[in-house]
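User: structure tokens for STAS domain-containing protein, please.
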Amino acid sequence: MADRQLKQFGHDIFSWVKAFPRNTPRYVTERLPIIKWLPKYNRTWAFRDIVAGITVGLIVVPQGMSYAKIAGLQVQHGLYSAYIGAIFYCFMGTSKDLTIGPTAVISLITGELVTELAGRMSAPAVAAISCLCVGAFTLILGVLRLGIILDFFPTTVLVGYTSGAAATIVIQQIPKWLGVPNINNRAPVYDIIIKMFQAFGTLSWLDLVFGLVSFVLLIAIGLAVDRWGRGRFAIQFIKISRFFIVTVLATALSFAINHNAPSDEKGNRVFKLSIVKTVPSGLPTPAVPSITSEIFSEIAPKLFAISIAVILEHIAIGKAFARKNRYQMDSNQELVALGLANVTASFFGAYAVTGSFSRSAVKFQCGVRSPFAGFITGALVLLALFFLTPVFFYIPDAALSAVIMVAVSVLISPPSVFIQFYRVNLWDFLSSQVALWVTIFVSVETGIAAGVAFSLIVLLFRVARPNFHVLRQIKDRPDVFIDSALDSTIETVSPPHGVLVFRIEESTTFPNAEAFKTWVLDETYKYTRFGGHIKPASEKLWSDDMDVHVRNLRKIAHGADSHVTDDDLPKLRAVVLDFSAVNSIDSTGLQGLFDLRDLLKDYAGVTDEPSTFFEVHFVGIQSSILHVLELSGITRPVAPISLQKIEVLDHTTSGDEIVPETANKKSHTDIGSAAVSVLGQSPFLKEAGLVHLTVRDAVDSVLIRSQSWENDHGNKGSDFGSISKTDIHYV
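Assistant: Done. Predicted tokens:
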């Protein structure tokens, strides 16, 4: 129950605060996992960790610079994010495979934020404040162990918005990749495409050649290694390092073309193709991010979207590799590590970082053995910042665009994934499509919000309109009751006349209480007749159209050509409610049960004739629900009952009837509120109360209690008659 879990959560927080002083050393150890694994570090692991660290470093340098361009920042900011994330995670991470740093999706959302605040804040300032806010939010979730918030973001939405963001990035890079100048790649996707075709005549052929050749090389290397290099790490390493290799080759050619570029009348060098140009060497001076309250309130929704995207991407990737390698990842510690990494990075010119799928996959392929590989990666990026920035000057923008397009293309899910969603569940497919297309044509944060909102609406609809079932017993298995509508190949028979069995596949709460009550009543009208006194027309209300409603329901149930009348149907004698799927019940749901019971009693005729037999039985109630129902008085308390001598129907029969045999009386519990069979007694008398373990027990209990009632009332008005063999089934 949610209230019990909330109380337990509050108790855990109180206990944690109370015990914090004496548990501080243990808490520090938990927050710095390196304290645990470093003393146990095996020297044989070092080779794999160093190879993995260097390999990821060769990838993250060109990727980091490329992703910074997506974020609307200078390329060095991507490297700042890369080294801080990698080194920080070495000390606080709980996954050996995961590597954190700049990623495509987060770069895209950051770029949208930079564009939104252009003219009011500098791009580095926007990136820093977003990094700080994302880190603080993530850190709070981790410290308070509020990772449950992630459960409201379905996998289908994650797939949809990730694919949409990746497709958006690819489209944004096409102008630079093809050398089409003066295109605002922050404009809507459709506007980029239109403007690009309009300006196609002004493209730079040299940029086009660099872009196309870089793209073809990246694809060709990948395909060639996949075909001929399986199982051979040395060849696989070529594919892993292809971004670095192509970037180096393109930079070398660019230097050869541009190093003697002439200058214009103002002294500015005129290069023959678009290049990165000056990249500051070393590290920036630490600075505290600042923002006004007005701007913060304006961008809060986008900051929340970045935070959610950061957390979802990180946890999903980490869990995937932990599951693949069969080790445990502490999700709350991951949030703490991610939060502190972003908070720290915000002071050093970085933007928001999270787990990278592609780079984590590379670490896995390299056989990484511990988080120490992240330290090697961070150190390599630092070396690049201090010693290689002059080389970065000549990196072609077209080549960087090609690197971006190939790198993010793996994030675009193929059609087969969405087809699988469709086959599994239509609503899952629709939620993925909402997230996909809204992300492409509006924005990433709107895509996330739209996808999640759609999924929550579907969830609420499922709660408000769950599946209800009328149960019938299997002919050859009288102890098993199913909904015959779900499988017409199984032959079923109806319960005894006047007994209806219903199942609800959801908790009984305020969204579905009225629907459940209405559905049970409608099903009751279909298969039983009114047991009370029929009012004359003069006494009916002006709005009473029950006769028409019941007649229409019976046409649906028995066929439009049928002419089912009350004489063809039995009186209602009992309703059995299977609550085995009910996990919780609230006040509205409880009131709905009382209202349903009263309406059923009226329909059975109890109001007009108090001596009429009618009961409501419950099956499979969980202990927490049973406690609520007992307190409310709608069920009788289940408690041990003293054994009493009563007459029991023996198996000796006369014709089709089971008749009492006074010579064969046996001991049995009293037929009271919760009678239970005693070993050695008649097996069909298992339970005679209002709460039962199985539907079979409930139906048998109804038959036995109705027989007792008939004996006491002289069979007046009974549709059951005497209990026959066809009504009692031995289990």
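User: Anything notable?

Assistant: Residues 639-689, 720-731 have pLDDT under 50 and may be disordered.
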